[in-house]
Design brief:
By secondary structure, this protein is of the alpha+beta class. The protein has 9 helices and 14 strands.
Length: about 280
């Protein structure tokens, strides 16, 4: 359960994009994730990309504000990309790039910014090079690869290419929108090439308590009134404890709030457990 809190913040505009700062003037970067694919919505594929990206971004101090899965529908992708690009500091879109008929993500992102698709010298050379590497590994009797290089290498005009060193189709950065592959290995390699562009001042600490959740709600709310933090409480029956996640934008505030909660709810910095037992009949 997340205890809601209202925090004051200022908004400035830099390079046409909003930059959010907390009351203590710390940098807060808000990112939205859009994962594309009918297979995600049908349950045929587990959305590991969203989980992996959210973890990577959180570790870099970034706030993941939205995670949305959408079908391979060009109009739907365009609508959501346009909406999120206007609302957040950056958007990462994964999946639906390549040469199959259901790969419409690159076209949709181009539509969102009213741009045409075109291959560049860089993306064309990269696709040709990757095809040569693939051909070297394929026996001659399996035939040649029939790939439309111009289509495979196309990205929205004016965008920055992200080369796919682990796959074939390139990604790109179009204004604040990062387009990346849906294949996990390719996504992770491509994200690594731009990871330093994602950074913020959010940091977190975990505490643990065996107190029942209902008993500690007042203390959690008070901690958020006393300190500029957010607190989430996550009951874990398997581990026989409640896990508390404290998030702030500076170490001093985070440490002060943690010390206060350690005393107020009999919390611990290491996992603890309690035999909750079965409810009486």
């Amino acid at each position: 359960m997340i205890i809601p809190v209202v925090q004051s913040a200022g908004v400035t505009v830099r390079d046409g994009k909003p930059t959010y700062r907390s009351a203590c003037n710390e940098r807060v970067m808000d990112v939205a994730l859009i994962t594309v694919g009918d297979e995600l919505l049908s349950g045929d594929t587990v959305n590991t990309n969203a989980n992996w990206l959210a973890s990577e971004l959180t570790d870099r101090g970034v706030a993941v504000a939205r995670i949305l899965s959408v079908p391979d529908d060009r109009a739907v992708i365009t609508e959501r990309v346009r909406e999120y690009a206007n609302a957040f500091d950056a958007v990462i879109v994964t999946g639906g790039i390549g040469g199959t008929p259901d790969d419409v993500t690159m076209e949709a992102v181009a539509d969102a910014f009213e741009r045409d698709l075109a291959a560049t010298d860089l993306t064309r050379e990269a696709v040709d090079r990757r095809l040569d590497e693939i051909r070297e590994r394929i026996p001659d009797e399996q035939g040649d690869l029939d790939v439309d290089v111009e289509a495979e290498a196309a990205i929205p005009e004016g965008s920055r290419a992200l080369l796919n060193e682990a796959g074939l189709a390139p990604g790109c950065v179009c204004e604040s929108v990062y387009v990346m592959p849906g294949i996990p290995g390719e996504l992770q390699a491509m994200f690594g090439s731009v990871a330093d562009e994602f950074a913020g001042d959010r940091r977190s600490r975990f505490l643990y308590t065996v107190e029942p959740e209902a008993n500690i709600v007042p203390a959690l709310a008070e901690s958020m009134e006393r300190f500029d933090v957010t607190v989430g409480c996550y009951p874990d029956r398997d581990a026989d404890h409640n896990r508390l996640k404290l998030t702030a934008t500076d170490d001093t505030t985070l440490d002060d709030a943690a010390e206060w909660l350690l005393e107020s709810v009999d919390a611990s910095e290491t996992p603890v457990s309690r035999d909750w037992g079965e409810p009486e009949q």
